[in-house]
Structures
1.
Amino acid sequence: DQQVKQNSPSLSVQEGRISILNCDYTNSMFDYFLWYKKYPAEGPTFLISISSIKDKNEDGRFTVFLNKSAKHLSLHIVPSQPGDSAVYFCAATPDNYGQNFVFGPGTRLSVLP
Amino acid sequence: EAQVTQNPRYLITVTGKKLTVTCSQNMNHEYMSWYRQDPGLGLRQIYYSMNVEVTDKGDVPEGYKVSRKEKRNFPLILESPSPNQTSLYFCASSLWDPNTEAFFGQGTRLTVV
């Protein structure tokens, strides 16, 4: 049973509009969440993270929102650019479990020019 | 330049022929891990190492071995590869601090026939 779920395998958005990628988790012990971006033929690269003591974290065009009661987080990209087209992975870990992240299956984002 | 280097990038082998995928990092990170990526399943952790001579199983360790004789290197060993180990493999390194991101290698695409 997957502890981190990304129920949309793919998403298409027009350039300049908002992209919203969703992630749900089942383990209430998860305390730290990250988003990674992956281009074809490359390894995942870190995008943004959020600790459970916060409900929002912003970094430029990227904002992550965390709703602990709903066990849900989302990544907002505003405005979306064609270079954002990639697979996005949500990852989570309990704070006392070091770097043993559990990854979701990923969402492929396509930003159309 | 800070990086995680995996070799080879692509490998086709036959069932039962032992192989090693190397991983090296130049960031003096304590923590290193191996993941495999399969369609619809995201990244699943195979093995991890918290420091030299300290390794432990991840979620899918069957059929794999690792070693951590030096801090910078963390090879993945398949003693007797089988077709179900055909996958995309990623090595990652990070500080042990859970509130930091992991750096990933570029991946090794392994095909076992």
Note: The interface with chain B takes residues 2, 4, 6, 9, 31-32, 34, 36, 41-46, 49, 51, 89, 91, 93, 95-106 of chain A (CB under 8 Å).
2.
Amino acid sequence: AQSVAQPEDQVNVAEGNPLTVKCTYSVSGNPYLFWYVQYPNRGLQFLLKYITGDNLVKGSYGFEAEFNKSQTSFHLKKPSALVSDSALYFCAVRAGPNNAGNMLTFGGGTRLMVKP
Amino acid sequence: NAGVMQNPRHLVRRRGQEARLRCSPMKGHSHVYWYRQLPEEGLKFMVYLQKENIIDESGMPKERFSAEFPKEGPSILRIQQVVRGDSAAYFCASSPRSVRDSANEQFFGPGTRLTVL
């Protein structure tokens, strides 16, 4: 079975400061890892993914994430937070490649609050 | 290219009624997934469908819930005899699929928020 843990329900950061949203995972075989963001009353928007290759993945809106196989982590980062980054962030995993189900398993979400 | 479409966006039902949620995948996507999100929780997988086939329904409750993705038209998630515990946001996602593109992300619709009175 695959699982995702986001240990922080909420992360508070001041605008302009770097931010980190933590994610650890458990999956059989090589993982495919994803970050999504959800704004109030909206669907999920894709931010970035790790499939293979460089451990540092760059995505939308200046976000990046670092895959660490030994720590089974995929933390989301941004060098300088914006107030408009305030939203709910979800980490997701699925086993790959050739996973017939293609099912994503989501973490419980982390609310990011960026204060002016 | 229009994104994943879901309707209605909001649905209110009384206990015992039926709820029908519709999802039109992105153009060119033949794989549809339904997820449920309870308040302040993550998304939980319900079912994965291809055209006319249910591939994985391991997350679907055994009773009252059903899903289809006909050859023509949108995917439908149907909840019969709704109860208050069914109140949630239901999200549909779609993806293209081939062996080569098996790492494609899923694209999510805006969701249908079901409220059971």
Note: The CA atoms of residues 32 and 49 of chain B lie 5 Å apart.
3.
Amino acid sequence: GQQLNQSPQSMFIQEGEDVSMNCTSSSIFNTWLWYKQEPGEGPVLLIALYKAGELTSNGRLTAQFGITRKDSFLNISASIPSDVGIYFCAGPGYNNNDMRFGAGTRLTVKP
Amino acid sequence: ETGVTQTPRHLVMGMTNKKSLKCEQHLGHNAMYWYKQSAKKPLELMFVYNFKEQTENNSVPSRFSPECPNSSHLFLHLHTLQPEDSALYLCASSPSSSTDTQYFGPGTRLTVL
């Protein structure tokens, strides 16, 4: 089915380091979304990708829609303490009513 | 502030209690969603409402009962819950159920004793 596998599950990095995480599926997705969830809050949309090969930036964040349409990557450059949170990839399922979410990558940034 | 509010933010209830969670969106959207978020598990879609009509029920036990009186408000009525129902319950909305971008509320942290 259209399950999303995120890796790594968690990351512990030093402030200033770059971060890379990815999301893969055994099925093709037509859209990839990346959300961030901070402690005590709901997920907030960071980047939306709609075309294979698309590379989109939002400040220090860059995400790419994989050519095979079965994966996506999110990179964060020069991390800062406020980058802490859980990053989720997501995409609509077969009927576009069912948004599938990965299990998330938990990011910890040490000052 | 995403334009989606949820109350209460925290709720502790016994297994025999009846309580309700409320969600309100100020975005003019037509679709609203309930999700359950448990520790270390992906978000689980529970219910979808589109133009006040329930369009999806993901095999959710009947002890969870949704209500959507209008496009701006969504409730989740809780009755005789189990301890394993303890989780963060998130509400979301989108312009329509076929639109990708969903906007989430802050969630209600539910603990069932």
Note: The first strand of chain A starts at residue 4 and ends at 7.
